[in-house]
Amino acid sequence: MRYMPHTAAERQAMLEKIGVGSVDDLFVDIPEDARLKGLLDLPKHAPEMDVDAQMQAYGAKSLSPTKAPFFLGAGAYRHHVPSVVDHLIQRSEFLTAYTPYQPEISQGTLQALFEFQSQVALITGMDVANASMYDGATSCAEAVLMACRVTRRKKAILSGNLHPHYREVTQTTLQYTDFEAVEYPTVPMGDEDYTAGLGKDIACVVVQNPDFFGRLQDLSDLAEQCHEVGALLVVVVNEIVSLGAVTPPGDMGADIVVGEGQSIGVPLSYGGPYVGLLATRDKFVRQMPGRLCGETTDQEGKRGFVLTLSTREQHIRREKATSNICTNAGLCSLAFSIHMSLLGETGFAKLSEINHGEAVTVAEAIDSLEGFDVLNDTFFNEFTVKLPCSAEKAVEAMADKGILGGVPVSRLIPGNAALDNLLLVAVTETVKAADVEKLVSALKELV
Question: Whole-model pTM?
């Protein structure tokens, strides 16, 4: 029996109090064709063992990354997570930790977040980082809002080679604001020219490095172009492991760096939860969204940690807050920080070196096949291959052979025939020589 504590009269009184006629009126912002009409076509009840068996059967239909050669990327990457990471984050002190409103009883949580911020600032080449955000896409949207506040301008430029999901989330976030995001066309393996559009009305330019197609760029000149007109450069990093080998965005002149931290400490997990990163310059810190942990001393002169600049938070003066994101992906950021601590600076660089080396090996093997062309001149651990056939059909054919061979570009950027034969291939330290042989063999059979 469903537990519904309110009577019909009580529900009607609540509706009248907020000024609507029915519960349906609360959902007017959801398009009519997207609303569920009636119950789902599911059994109303079943024994627990039967439900468990059915769900196991559904799960068995999926091809697990742990049981197949895995070359998927496009924003989510399979890396080895040391078992100690999961062991430590599941300790009760961390697993049940709540928002650290009271610093005197939250020193462990606050110190962990402080260390996380320090690590993110270091690898991005920035001055300060926040205590994490939901994921890379929402971090990107928040960076655009932040840039608009800093510059007091209302228009942003989004690179055509920015991950499509990041563009979509940014547009969704801006749709009910006074701000606007202009999307440039996708240019696989080509340089984007912002000269015509980069004027005094632009708050920021958002670019990704490596970009959606895996291409690496030197963004120093673009940073100068932005600064000449008073705009900020926002750099997105999808694959955070790349920063162990690639020049940090901060060293190239970026003003805000955002990214997805999933690659360090966080498994694929069917697409989430992940951990968003956001770092910036000291001079912009008061416009930075999310939480910020700071180091201080107590009355006895002992080192301590606190939430600082908290007036930005949702729980204080919400109508004047710089962001209504008032939380952080605490457990995921802790996993990130533990994994990064285990790696250390040398280990992080070594991990990135292995990733790049393995990717070069796979790219050379594919490029040697007749009819296949690796388009990238530069890449980290992900590159784009032009196939002699439809990339979507190729992926399905490889999946039938038990190989997760890559992500068709057309799956994320539909409606452009020029992209139909392009396949994104990602290679991490988890790929073995036998996996590469199976991939190359399967690709040969496509011709």
Answer: 0.90
